[in-house]
Design a protein that fits this description.
3-stranded mixed sheet
Length: 158
């Protein structure tokens, strides 16, 4: 499902020419799970994007938390676009960051994206939402260390 209840089917993806794209990030729930309609084949959104010409796809294998996914993706894009890491390594580093950083460390990171603290790494609304999420928790805890929060996402491709 897309915005406004629109559907994007695997058939439509397969008809696209996405050879100019570098990466497809499917950050919604269960976007990396193969379908079960064709039992002889492994058909999934990532395989559809690969067939359409995208060399790399990030997708999730289970229902994911909105808050932890937003934090993971924010760090992924920083590692990829600012630190110039290849997408698989950028994802790995973002997963390590989400897993191992204390809530206080996450607070510091998201504060950097708010105008009153300088920096503009991500949209202000997203930074405020993440900051509210981590402020509600013990500063020294690692509230997102469980694999549920970071391990759902994998990279498919070259």
């Amino acid at each position: 499902m897309l915005a406004n209840g629109e559907r994007l089917t695997l058939r439509e993806i397969l008809e696209l020419d996405l050879g100019q794209a570098r990466l497809a990030v499917l950050s919604a729930c269960e976007t990396g799970i193969p379908g079960t309609n064709l039992l002889d084949e492994v058909v999934s959104l990532p395989s559809g994007f690969l067939q359409a010409g995208v060399p790399g796809i990030i997708g999730s294998l289970w229902s994911v938390s909105d808050a932890s996914t937003m934090m993971l993706m924010a760090r992924f894009y920083d590692f990829w676009k600012i630190d110039n890491l290849d997408p698989p390594e950028a994802l790995r580093q973002a997963q390590i960051w989400l897993r191992d950083t204390t809530n206080g460390g996450k607070e510091d990171y998201f504060k950097q994206s708010l105008p009153e603290y300088a920096g503009t790494k991500m949209p202000e609304a997203a930074a405020r939402k993440a900051l509210r999420e981590v402020l509600q928790q013990d500063e020294l805890a690692r509230s997102y260390k469980h694999p549920y929060h970071w391990a759902a996402f994998g990279y498919t491709g070259m």
